[in-house]
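Long-time lurker. I teach an intro course on protein structure, and each term I like to show students one example going from raw sequence to a predicted 3D structure in token notation. This year I'd like something fresh instead of my usual example. Would anyone be willing to generate the tokens for the chain below so I can use it in lecture? Attribution to the forum is fine with me.
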Amino acid sequence: RSLQPGSGTTDLLGSVYYRRFDPETQRSWFVQANFELPLQERSGYKPGRRFGLDAGLSLPFGSAWNALAQINLQQNKRVLI
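-- Reply from a regular --
Happy to contribute to a lecture. Here you go:
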């Protein structure tokens, strides 16, 4: 099955994003959450669920540059038979 494209499922995908900008300091930060939930599995294939969380901070670095610090977390969960 691993050689066939796709997982044989229809997936429910979702994402939430929030960004905050401070015009006084020109700093901004963001957080984003994503999920993938497989539905309607076929041929006995049971794909797992996926959740991701991203967060970042942008700081001005001179007049034309910004520094960006970002962290990305991802959890993959297997569905056991």
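Some talking points for your students: Strands lie at 10-22, 27-39, 49-60, 66-77. The chain has a mean pLDDT of 86.
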